Amino acid sequence: MANLKNIITKNYSELTLFSIIFLFFLQMLSDLTERIYNFALLGLEPTMHILALLFFFSPLILLFFRRTISNKTLFIIGELAIITRLLEPLFQKETMLVLSGVSVSCFLIFFPAFFTRIKNKEQQTGITLGLSLAIAVALSILFRTVNSTLDISMYGWFQIIGWVLGIIASIMLVGMLLRKDEPKEKSTDNQGQPASFGRILGLTFGLVSVFIIIWFAFVSPTVISRWTEGNYSAITIGVLGMLSLFIIGMTIKPDLMNHIKSWMLWVWNGLFTLSLTLTILVHQIIPEYGIRFPGFPDAYPIVAFATTWTQHIPLVLMILLSPIIYIDFVLLSREMLKIKPKPSKIGGSFALGAGLYIVIMIFMQLLPTVWGYFYAIGYAFRDLYWLAFLVPGVLLTLPIFLIKKKTINFDKTTQKMKSKSIIIAILGLIFVGTVAGTIITTPYPTTPSEAKTSLIIMTYNIRQGVNDSGDKNYEGQLELIRSVDPDILALQECDPTRISGGNSDVVRYFADKLNMYSYRGPKSVVNTYGTAILSKYPLSNVTAFFTYSTHQQIGATQVQITVGSQTFNVFSNHLASDTEEGKISQIQDTLSRVEVLNNVIFMGDFNFRPYTAQYNLTIEVLEDSWVQQWGTVAEDRIDHIFLSTGITVLDTNYIERGHSDHPAYWIEIQL
Fold first, then answer.
1. Phi and psi at residue 545, to the nearest 5°
2. What pLDDT, in 10s, does the model give residues 150-168?
3. What's the whole-model pTM score?
4. pLDDT tens, residue by residue, 177-198
5. I need a labelling partner for 440 at 20 to 30 A (CA). Which of 11, 417, 459, 551 fits?
6. Which CATH architecture has domain 454-670?
7. Running DSSP on this structure, what letter comes out for residue 392?
8. Between 1.20.1070, 2.60.290, 3.30.70, 1.20.1250, what CATH number should domain 2-183+196-440 receive?
9. Residue partners of 427: CB distance under 8 A and separation at least 6
């Protein structure tokens, strides 16, 4: 037993422990927010599940600790965070919500409590924490890339990856428990002058801002790709490449940091925040109206601008400047470690600077999408998606002024980095695996070569990849689509590439698994519920346009698809309004683009039933595919496919299996 203790203690690694702990936290933070949204907000009327936000206020528990928290207490809290993370993917519904909440709660106690422990290696530990966070993000990118943006370590048999990491982290926690605390180093930085609560709170805002920026954007690069319509593979490799440069630099020669002056840090942070905000803002521009959608119906329909190379300039700058967030994390961690705050102070600061701050930022990102459903404050946040990135950027930059010059001295740590070759080797494997993942999961469609006499057309509101009970259900929906085997597929509510959907890209996932061409429009920064068109045949003249909105931004997707000698004009729509005038305006806006075209396939979730005014306006221009096949309307249906006169319908069918809150509707047309 003594030998085992010695082995564990000797091989204890804070780098390994925190790399896994940070990864698990980012995973559970994503899952907790997604579950809260799915259960409490997806129905657009808040439910009691919203009380799960209280999990973020767990640092208040630290107020009850007067002295430094022991290793044994840290071990119990850390182990609970790990165990709940490993169990969470095995369950569904509210159980997943609770387990992810407990895991996040434990991290928000464990991490600030770690700063209260007596140590004499603040400089080295700061670097370790920064490297750990960077490695955690690199692992997250890898796990998401190899499974088309869904974290592979959370699904099926691949959960064994998480269990292996969890076991390793548990062993490291045992090592932390067994290791004897080293004597406190002599320092005059804070002797007789305990750090003020304001200073601790400022550093906390900075540390948590790093987590928020990573969570909102960098943990899953497909988020950035959907903001900008940029090349997913290039963005992923660029983000991981800059992250790798940080890891290599801090591993091999951390004293390079000595050449960075305080003013350089402020400028670097300021430029990063500016480029991050502009990356979103330049893609939010509405033709003739700037970054705000007009509030009157006569302005619509509005066709979205085509993306130009100049709009990618802020994107490139943002990626090039992104290592600053990890450098900030190193410096802020070292400053907090030097302070050695009391549990009560850091508990209070994390309750405000982590708990309350994260909750506010969650709503700040979600409200631009659901602005019309929160009448008290929602309208104020319409078109302000960029604000959810400017705020953490500013709150990361300002605490840099709290960092003392001595904290930016890396001389003592230059010769103390261990296991350099192991870190570089692991990083190399992650990089190669990520590049391979982007190549393997990129669709390479082959246009059907056989002479076809008919086409299968399908429309499906997938409810952001969530089933009627609130659980993520990509696989069930994919199975349903495969059973139909459509040649052309229209999706609605396919916008989960933000924190409300776990930063997953359901369109990319389906396109990969079905090996189809795809266009998802409009861009996610304009906060529509998302429409997309997938096809076995190449897409051309892709366009996104907007119709008048009364309570949620309405966007549609329009493409041309050529099959043999015929070219079809295909639309995927999701109309919705809380007023009759709004409904009429929306369908008129859309029909103004449809009625001038031939061979139209006009489909989606229209949110109107047969015999309504909107339906009657539509069938004045196009034919209802169901009526053409059966001679009567589909009662109580709001998902439709309308066709130009002259297109012959061979079959129609609604499929209801509970994989979404909508049925799938497909038809077969004659070529």
1. -145, 160
2. 999 999 999 999 999 999 9
3. 0.94
4. 887 654 444 444 444 457 889 9
5. 459
6. 4-Layer Sandwich (3.60)
7. H
8. 1.20.1250
9. 135, 138, 244, 247, 248
